[in-house]
Amino acid sequence: MTTEQYAHPEVLVETEWLAQHLHDPNLRIVESDEDPLLYDTGHIPGAVKVDWFTTLQDPVRRDFINQQQFEALCSSLGIANDTTVIFYGDKNNWFACYAFWLFEYYGHEHLRILNGGRQKWLQEARPITREVPVYPPTDYRAKPPKRDIRAFREDVFRHIETGGALVDVRSPQEYTGELLHMPNYPQEGALRGGHIQGAVNIPWAMAINPEDGTFKLPQALRDLYQGKGITPDREVIAYCRIGERSSHTWFVLKYLLGYPRVRNYDGSWTEWGNLVGAPIEKGAGPS
Question: Is residue 2 scored above 60 in pLDDT?
Fold first, then answer.
């Protein structure tokens, strides 16, 4: 299988290709993990760390960093506007896709995901290091935010009214309302359980080959989403708990399958499940 089968193969790189381009001066490899300690135990040579919580989130507001903070981050990592940034991480590139989504939100044009992420790199016994690189700072300039890839709660209300497609990528237990939080994360729940009205449940990890963390073949992905009514002719909003798992599904739909109108609702269930007056449903939902 080659990445050429996807709608936008240019957004994926394979481990073999990256191993041959580790010293390319126009590349910046970024590790973004759910577990913030993994990078320090060993990472791809030359990779910098972007922690989803301490690096990408505003320290006060419930939001990610603003445009000026993003510019400062990229400048400090030696990322210029023409740098090709390759993201990888644990959990099948869960937070790598979140970082990719945020970089696209601020208009960076050259973005890639390492197919298989940290899991595949380690399985193949490729080199890792504990050395933390330091790059000369740049004068990075972000573009205005791309609102067409991000959904806010007002957008979701309108989406419900117009019958748009909603994908809940959480676990089935979260979707039905059995759990108020992600499995094994009881401190990160909401006041109410269930799902947004009309949403179908397609857990994010169903898009992944568990044996090596790579993305499934295009036809398997099409069957997965279109079999639940998530078709490319519809406007789609994906959500999860805080927008991290749904950024993975956003990436699959937009770049691997070529859906033209896909947004990530990063407020997700921690906002919707606590929002006064927001319509929710419980149970299995549409099949």
Answer: no
DSSP H/E element including 4? none
Place of tokens 């240019």: 10
Give residue 163's region: left, alpha or beta (phi > 0; psi -120 to 50). Answer: left
Pairwise CA distance, residues 166 & 195, whole Å = 10
Contacts 24+ apart (CB under 8 A), 99-103: 99/30, 99/32, 99/50, 99/52, 99/56, 100/247, 100/251, 101/149, 101/247, 101/250, 101/251, 101/264, 102/56, 102/64, 102/70
d(CA 159, CA 282): 19
Q: CB atoms < 10 A from the CB of 185, how many?
A: 10
Q: Tokens representing 32?
A: 């973004």
Q: Enumerate long-range contacts of 55-59, CB under 8 Å, 24 or more apart.
A: 56/32, 56/98, 56/99, 56/102
Reported confidence tier of residue 283, pLDDT bands at 50, 70, 90 = confident
3-class SS of residue 228: coil
Please give the structure tokens belonging to residue 264. 């990530």
Terminal-residue alpha carbon distance, the chain: 31
Q: Which of 113, 208, 237, 240 is catalytic?
A: 240
240 is catalytic: yes
Does the pLDDT at position 240 exceed 60?
Answer: yes
Q: Return mean pLDDT, the chain.
A: 94
Distance of CA 188 to CAs 183, 249, 263, 272, Å? 10, 21, 23, 13
| Amino acid letter, residue 249 | T
